[in-house]
């Protein structure tokens, strides 16, 4: 790592993942993190004031109106050695602006620079309902050490463009061009209450709960037989810290770029199981009057949720399974939350959603 104290820039701190990452980093006992202020991207003065009030000198808020403000993003990144992008998985312009700034930092400092990017598992999801893309031999389990995930995503994106894949590919390609060492963390379905100061709720299960309350019953998209992985937010943020700490320790054997698209599943489920668990939790909370789980079409769920049908299919009905070999074997990641915690969390999610 650089001979000077590394400067760290974190985006997404008002969100679920970024806020939880910040909280975990500030608890780290690593020598390079204990007294190092972290620059954080923030979009409102109220939230900047709240962070300063609670965290004081540990954070340095940087006001940015949006990820479209590429000049500010590039300038901010150019003043830092490490950027952790937890702000968006689907904004290619903003992500490339951050990489461009890191390129400038490297030219000025002569030291390595790093980009830890947040993606997701839907970029690998098949399309079992429409059949537009499905594995001929059935759903596969990807291994992030053995399989070329970059090449697979590139092949898929040439056939059907998907924002998350597009950003993954662009981050790797521009990272190579700019001399930035990139790491892409690809969470599956994340559950549990976040530890950040603002948004404490994840996306998929709370959206499922809200839609079920609106309908008066739980549901699945299609037959609900697609399989995904899950990870608790507390286990996920440990992975970010492990990558960062390896960088800070000056690890020379840490793979990056095309071979550092990192999975982090702690267990596996079927979408039908989510439908049943949401039904049980909502019924027990008195929010619906039936435990029936109805099958809905892509079009019905797209209309209810406001999301495109493609996103509904890959995000709520597909198969997307990964063996988190990189996290376990290279980084020593050991998730603490397992099947029992996963199955028991739905009541907590319902309570959080209805009280929000």
Structure overview:
- The mean pLDDT is 94.
- This protein is globular.
- Helix content is 45%, strand content 17%.
- The strands form 4 sheets. Strands 3-2-1-4-5-7-11 form a 7-stranded parallel β-sheet, sandwiched between helices. A 3-stranded mixed β-sheet has the order 8-10-12.
- It has helices at 16-27, 31-34, 45-55, 70-77, 92-109, 149-159, 163-178, 204-215, 233-248, 271-284, 298-305, 309-316, 325-330, 339-344, 346-355; strands at residues 8-11, 38-42, 59-63, 82-85, 114-118, 141-143, 181-186, 189-191, 218-221, 227-232, 261-263, 267-270, 293-296, 321-323.
- The chain contains 15 helices and 14 strands.
- By secondary structure, it is α/β, with parallel strands linked by helices.
- Strand 2 (38-42), helix 3 (45-55) and strand 3 form a beta-alpha-beta unit.
- It has a domain at 8-201 and 230-266 and 320-336: 3-Layer(aba) Sandwich (Rossmann fold).
- The termini are far apart.
- Helix 1 packs across helix 9 (233-248), helix 4 (70-77) packs parallel to helix 5 and helix 8 (204-215) crosses helix 10 (271-284).
Task: Provide a concise account of the structure shown.
The protein is α/β, with parallel strands linked by helices.
Write the layout of secondary structure elements.
Blueprint: E1 8-11, H1 16-27, H2 31-34, E2 38-42, H3 45-55, E3 59-63, H4 70-77, E4 82-85, H5 92-109, E5 114-118, E6 141-143, H6 149-159, H7 163-178, E7 181-186, E8 189-191, H8 204-215, E9 218-221, E10 227-232, H9 233-248, E11 261-263, E12 267-270, H10 271-284, E13 293-296, H11 298-305, H12 309-316, E14 321-323, H13 325-330, H14 339-344, H15 346-355
Parallel strand pairs: 1-2, 1-4, 2-3, 4-5, 5-7, 6-14, 7-11, 8-10, 9-13
Antiparallel strand pairs: 10-12
């Amino acid at each position: 790592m650089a001979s000077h104290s590394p400067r760290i820039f974190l985006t997404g701190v008002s969100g679920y993942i970024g806020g939880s990452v910040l909280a975990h980093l500030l608890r780290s006992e690593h020598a390079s993190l204990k007294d190092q202020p972290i620059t954080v991207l923030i979009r409102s003065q109220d939230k900047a004031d709240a962070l300063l009030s609670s965290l004081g000198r540990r954070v340095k808020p940087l006001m940015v109106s949006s990820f479209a403000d590429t000049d500010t993003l590039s300038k901010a990144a150019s003043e830092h050695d490490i950027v952790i992008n937890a702000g968006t998985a689907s904004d290619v312009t903003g992500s490339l602006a951050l990489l461009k700034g890191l390129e400038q930092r490297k030219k000025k400092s002569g030291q390595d620079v790093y980009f830890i990017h947040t993606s997701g598992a839907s970029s690998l999801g098949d399309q079992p309902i429409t059949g537009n893309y499905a594995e001929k031999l059935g759903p596969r389990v990807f291994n992030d050490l053995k399989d070329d995930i970059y090449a697979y995503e590139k092949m898929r994106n040439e056939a059907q463009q998907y924002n998350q894949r597009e950003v993954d590919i662009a981050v790797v390609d521009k990272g190579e061009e700019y001399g930035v060492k990139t790491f892409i963390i690809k969470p599956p379905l994340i559950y549990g209450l976040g530890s950040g100061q603002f948004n404490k709720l994840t996306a998929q299960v709370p959206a499922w709960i809200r839609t079920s309350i609106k309908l008066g019953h739980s549901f699945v998209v299609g037959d609900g037989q697609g399989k995904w992985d899950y990870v608790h937010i507390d286990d996920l943020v440990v992975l970010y810290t492990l990558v960062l700490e390896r960088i800070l320790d000056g690890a020379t054997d840490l793979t990056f770029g095309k071979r550092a698209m990192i999975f982090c599943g702690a267990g596996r489920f079927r979408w039908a199981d989510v439908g049943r668990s949401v039904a049980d939790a909502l019924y027990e909370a008195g929010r619906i009057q039936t435990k029936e789980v109805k099958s809905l079409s892509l079009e019905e769920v797209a209309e209810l949720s406001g999301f495109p049908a493609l996103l509904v299919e890959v995000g709520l009905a597909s198969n997307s399974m990964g063996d988190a070999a990189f996290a376990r074997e290279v980084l020593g990641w050991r998730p603490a939350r397992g099947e029992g915690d996963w199955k028991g969390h739905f009541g907590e999610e319902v309570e959080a959603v209805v009280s929000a």
